[in-house]
Design goal:
heterodimer; A: little secondary structure; elongated; B: mainly alpha; signal (chain B); protein transport (chain B)
Chain lengths: 10, 215
């Protein structure tokens, strides 16, 4: 997972 | 993780807890739209398909489990719990929520960042979440006396969306390639839907009066 990925949001 | 994102997640968590607390302790779901709750359950189920495939952090996995578990248990409570079911205003909660699913799904098929199953489902969940509050807002407008917990629940949900926008602005300036039009626009639409509610919520708070939305 890269730092700038919206997929790490809920 | 920045402070806006954390605060957003915490208000989101608080909103769910307030609702569960209301349902569990008072055994009542008066003023709560089952339609909205069903849409939220679908939103989380389609968004968190990556829960077993991509590990981001323990925090992330735990929060996903909480949102999945809470949204499905709220739906279960309203549909199946003997006492809670009785307090559900079926006749007031008439929004045709199924009609929101297909347009959101088609839009996700057409406009997405990557045409894969998981990505389309993720995008679908964003579009659906943007409009999922509509049945609840319609129900609030029909309810004469909105109880405090219901008002707080909707307020916390709106606050969560507002804080996520601040989180995106922060990330845009601090992370080099952070540009995501799809969550931004759908998140903005979602937040705008709360604008009217916020106005009346603050008015009632300022005047120390019970929350009532104009019909």
């Amino acid at each position: 997972e890269t730092e700038d990925d919206a997929h790490d949001e809920l | 993780m920045n402070i806006f994102r954390l605060a957003g997640d915490m208000t989101h968590l608080a909103s769910v807890l307030v609702l569960l607390l209301k349902i569990h302790t008072i055994k009542s779901c008066a003023g709560i739209s089952l339609k909205t709750q069903e849409l939220f359950a679908i939103v989380f189920a389609s968004r968190y398909l990556d829960i077993f495939t991509d590990f981001i952090s323990l925090y992330n996995t735990l929060m996903k489990l909480i949102f999945l578990g809470s949204s499905f248990s709220i739906v279960w409570y309203i549909r199946r719990h003997k006492l809670v079911r009785r307090s559900y205003d079926k006749d007031q909660d008439t929004f045709r929520h199924y009609f929101l699913l297909l347009p959101c799904f088609i839009l996700a098929l057409l406009i997405n960042e990557k045409f894969t199953f998981k990505e389309v489902m993720w995008t679908f969940s964003l579009y659906l979440e943007a409009v999922a509050i509509l049945p609840q807002l319609v129900l609030l407008q029909r309810t004469k006396n909105i109880d405090n917990l219901t008002g707080q629940y909707v307020f916390l949900l709106g606050a969560y969306r507002g804080l996520y926008i601040l989180n995106w602005i922060y990330r845009y300036f601090t992370e080099p390639h952070y540009v995501h039009w799809i969550p931004w626009i759908s998140g903005l639409v979602q937040t705008l839907l709360y604008a009217d509610f916020f106005y009346y919520y603050f008015e009632s708070w300022k005047n120390n009066k019970k929350l009532q939305l104009p019909a």
